[in-house]
Amino acid sequence: MFFQIVDILGTIAFAISGALVAMNKRMDPFGVLIIAFVTAVGGGTLRDVMIGVEPVSWMKNMTFVYVIIGSASFAVVFRKRINYLRKSLFLFDTIGIALYTLVGVDTGLVAGLHPIVCIALGTMTACFGGVLRDILCNEIPVIFRKEIYATACILGGLTYFLLRRFLEDENYLFVIAGLVVIIVRLIAVRFKISLPSLYKKEDQST
Which of helix, strand or coil describes residue 53? Predict the structure, then answer.
């Protein structure tokens, strides 16, 4: 039950995040729904395809379809109040990557995969919906910039497996690992911490 709640909360967070980006791009209602849908299930779809799940998880459970439609509709109806909070998009995106990292890790564990692969699946699940969203909205994906994004997911996954040796309660493990993702992302943005650049200043200016 806890895992299902986490999955649904992640879907809601990413669907709203995608809808807000689409509305900022002034897309029509159909475009908003498509971007919300792609953001919410894009990473999970890629994960399921890679581990051979047929059909992919959201196709077997219409709850996710209804949740995405409801979340996108909520974002449209209350867009003025949501947009009034300048950091709402960032917060929804941060919560989404934390929750989806856990979903991907758990999926890898159920499939009997190595912890490193599980962490990779968690990072992929968390990040690639946003990658597809940004590409469709003609933006450079956040994961490909200097920002601490995928790194936060990786650290959350590592925390999960490190604490797994000491904690038996899966619920506590999920909560702590999710908080690590959120806190790392918040600290990185608050103090403008980023990965080192491969380019010199003169290269960036040209």
Answer: coil
Identity of residue 92: F
Burial annotation 10-23 (CB, 10 A radius, 16+ → b, else e): bbbbbbbbbbbbbb
Q: What is the CA radius of gyration of the chain?
A: 17
Copy the structure tokens of residue 157: 């996954």
- CA 142, 144, 147, 148: dihedral to nearest 10 degrees? 100
Q: Could you list the pLDDT tens digit for every one of the 206 residues in the chain?
A: 677 887 888 888 889 889 989 998 999 999 999 999 999 999 999 999 999 988 998 999 899 999 999 999 999 988 777 655 556 677 878 888 998 999 999 999 999 999 999 999 999 999 999 999 999 999 988 788 767 889 999 999 999 999 998 888 888 999 999 999 999 999 998 888 887 777 666 555 54
Of 48, 27, 33, residue with least CA distance to 128: 48
152's enclosing H/E stretch is: helix 150-163
Q: What is the largest CA-CA distance in the chain?
A: 53
